[in-house]
């Protein structure tokens, strides 16, 4: 383990470090998993060497965040989350990050991996360029509490504001509220959100203006605005018509690219804008 103040750009730069060059010659442009002898015996999972650069920050100890480097032997089936576990369980138990399901369902381990918002449990190490260090940082735009853990409260406050629950008028029905397949199709995509914040924390408008609702809140408003069983659409549209609402979106598509569920986030935001325009006519 080593600690350094170098930025990932410095170590990911064209010149690269001597260690990176040496590693590149060892593993090639895109590393192929193998064991120390160069091939994995039949039936065994091949292993390879990985350099993990983790952004560390302990508010009780550090004035500023710093980079920390770990050299690990990992396997072809390992993900970035497994590399973080290896550091935490075998080298430094103080490394702090969130994770729960480890299978892309709970949304708790969104982080910046090689500069892109991803779920650590969904990124296989063998799919990354292992000739360079893998950088892991907290998502942007939310206050860092410790290492890779950010304060999610501003994110969830925006989510709560759009009232992400069914608002139905009238007396409680005696049977289920019927909805056609076509009606359900209209908002099917936005039901898939796992509230990981990868979209909101990749949005430049959110970075510069923490008051902006952000893509995730709009996606979750969309899920109910276009639900034929819901009666609260006008309320939600009114909320999103705010100066910090949908009109702040600059259609950069960062959110759609970041979403680990493949939700067409920018399209959903455009549909909410369109609903506001049609309502005004
Ligand atoms: S829309 Fe996608 S990226 Fe955004 S919070 Fe939901 S699952 Fe995560
Ligand atoms: S740990 Fe649950 S989504 Fe990655």
Task: Please outline the helices and strands.
Elements: E1 2-4, H1 8-12, H2 18-27, E2 47-56, E3 66-75, H3 80-90, E4 110-113, E5 116-119, E6 134-137, E7 144-146, E8 149-150, H4 153-161, H5 181-185, H6 204-208, H7 215-225, H8 233-240, H9 254-258, H10 265-280
Parallel strand pairs: 2-6
Antiparallel strand pairs: 1-3, 2-3, 4-5, 4-6, 7-8
Helix pairs in contact: 4-7, 7-8, 7-10
Description:
It is a single chain. The chain has 281 residues and is of the alpha+beta class. The protein folds into 2 domains: 2-150, Beta-grasp domain (Ubiquitin-like (UB roll)); 153-280, Fumarate Reductase Iron-sulfur Protein, Chain B, domain 2. Helix content is 30%, strand content 14%. A 6-stranded mixed sheet has the order 1-3-2-6-4-5, covered by helices on one side. The model is unreliable at 2-30 (pLDDT under 50).
**Can you write the helix and strand succession as a string?**
EHHEEHEEEEEHHHHHHH
Based on CA atoms alone, the radius of gyration comes out at 22 Å
CATH architecture level-2 label of the largest domain: Roll
> What would you give as the CATH superfamily of the largest domain?
Beta-grasp domain
| Ligand identities | iron/sulfur cluster, FE2/S2 (inorganic) cluster
The domain count comes to 2
CATH class of the largest domain: Alpha Beta
Distance between the termini: 62 Å
Task: Please give the largest β-sheet.
Answer: 6 strands, mixed
């Amino acid at each position: 383990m080593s600690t350094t103040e170098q930025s990932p750009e410095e170590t990911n730069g064209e010149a690269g470090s001597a260690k990176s060059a040496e590693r590149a010659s060892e593993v090639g442009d895109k590393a192929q998993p193998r064991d120390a002898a160069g091939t994995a015996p039949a039936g065994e999972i091949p292993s390879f060497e990985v350099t993990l650069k983790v952004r560390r920050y302990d508010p009780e100890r550090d004035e500023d965040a710093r980079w920390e480097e770990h050299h690990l032997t990992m396997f072809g089936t390992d993900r970035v989350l497994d590399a973080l576990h290896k550091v935490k369980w075998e080298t430094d138990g103080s490394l702090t990050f969130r994770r729960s399901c480890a299978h892309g369902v709970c949304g708790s381990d969104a982080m910046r991996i090689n500069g892109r918002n991803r779920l650590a449990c969904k990124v296989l190490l063998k799919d990354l360029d292992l000739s360079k260090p893998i950088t892991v940082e907290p998502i942007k735009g939310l206050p860092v509490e410790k290492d890779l853990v950010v304060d999610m409260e501003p994110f969830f406050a925006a989510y709560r504001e759009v009232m992400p629950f069914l608002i139905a008028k009238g007396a409680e029905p005696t049977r289920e509220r019927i909805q056609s397949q076509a009606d359900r199709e209209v908002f099917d995509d936005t039901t898939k959100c796992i509230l990981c914040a990868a979209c909101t924390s990749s949005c430049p408008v959110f970075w510069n203006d923490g008051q902006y609702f952000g893509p995730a809140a709009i996606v979750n408003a969309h899920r109910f605005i276009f639900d034929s069983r819901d009666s609260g659409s006008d309320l939600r549209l009114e909320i999103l018509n705010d100066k910090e609402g949908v009109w702040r979106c600059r259609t950069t598509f960062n959110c759609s690219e970041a979403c680990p569920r493949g939700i067409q986030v920018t399209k959903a935001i455009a549909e909410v804008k369109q609903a506001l325009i049609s309502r005004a006519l």
